[in-house]
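Input set for joint prediction.
Command: fold jointly, output tokens.
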Amino acid sequence: AQSVTQLDSHVSVSEGTPVLLRCNYSSSYSPSLFWYVQHPNKGLQLLLKYTSAATLVKGINGFEAEFKKSETSFHLTKPSAHMSDAAEYFCVVSVPLYTGRRALTFGSGTRLQVQP
Amino acid sequence: NAGVTQTPKFQVLKTGQSMTLQCAQDMNHEYMSWYRQDPGMGLRLIHYSVGAGITDQGEVPNGYNVSRSTTEDFPLRLLSAAPSQTSVYFCASIATGRREVETQYFGPGTRLLVL
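tokens >
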């Protein structure tokens, strides 16, 4: 079984300062890892995904995430926050099962506030 | 290429009523799934399908039925709506293959209120 823990339910930063959203996972198998963003009353948009090709993954809108197997972490970062980054962010772990199912587990989400 | 579409966007039901949430994708994805999103709980899997004619239960299947007669469509049926089913429902399809790692494409969601 796998699980995802987003360590902060709310993060507040000032515009122009760095963003760090923390995610830890557990999995018995080599997982695929994703970050999704959800703006108010909108669907989920893929920010980035870990494909095992590189531990530092670059996504859209200047976001990055680093896969650290030894720490079982996949933290999301951005050097400089923008007001439009205010949203809810979900860390997701996916493990393919022999049944054909993808065992997808979502974190509970981190709400990012950006202060002017 | 419309991606994943969902209808309706918003629905109000009375307890005991039934309805079908529609989901369609035009990307020829084999794998489709339904989630519900509740505050502080992320997304939870209701049902999923690995191809036409094949469906299975997720984490929270009670009170919901699905069918998959075509690759494109994956409707979710509420048999007898209950207030506990008030939620936002997302349909998703997954791109698989050698070059792509299980990227899920989400629909815009259906907000359901059960009174």
